[in-house]
Prior knowledge:
By secondary structure, the protein is mostly helical. It folds into two domains: 13-121, no CATH class; 122-174, no CATH class. The protein has helices spanning 14-25, 34-60, 67-84, 93-115, 124-139, 157-171. The protein is globular, with a radius of gyration of 17 Å.
Amino acid sequence: MTxxxxxxxxxxxxxxxxxCADRLLANDAEASAPDRLETLTRQLHGHLMPAVPEVxxxxxxxxxxxxxxxxALFCVGEARLRLSAEPGRVLSAGVRTAHAQRLARSVxxxxxxxxxxxxxxPDAPERAAYVRMLLHCSGCRDCRIVDDNGEAVGDCVTGDRxxxxxxxxxxxxxxxxxx
Length: 179
């Protein structure tokens, strides 16, 4: 969307963006049909296209040594990689679904950054785990290796461990684990 000179872009519709991402991430039956999956994938692309520059512009206004800036810019870069990866129709439904789910997670993450005044990642243990992973992976050559589809293919034990810690933090504490 191009905005005439002197006019601001309309604000992002976070409610609609999150609803689209949640429909896909909830593993609904509606996303399992190939035509529905393609529709949701296109919608997610449409949501990411204006969100990426909005979040990036806001993040670049933060101090250069800010963790919030680094986190937001990392998420913007990840969203760009996901936007550039296009699994074709010849690939399995599972691969196309995984791609769409990665787009949905980028939509949710950019919504969080856009909504937060300081463009922070989520609070508490999840944020701390994410920042640890971000700081390691952004400087690790092995962690940054990607294939032609923008998927991480590097082999870094530390990066894998930090990613698992982040995933666990997102899930929250284990309840009723039998202890």
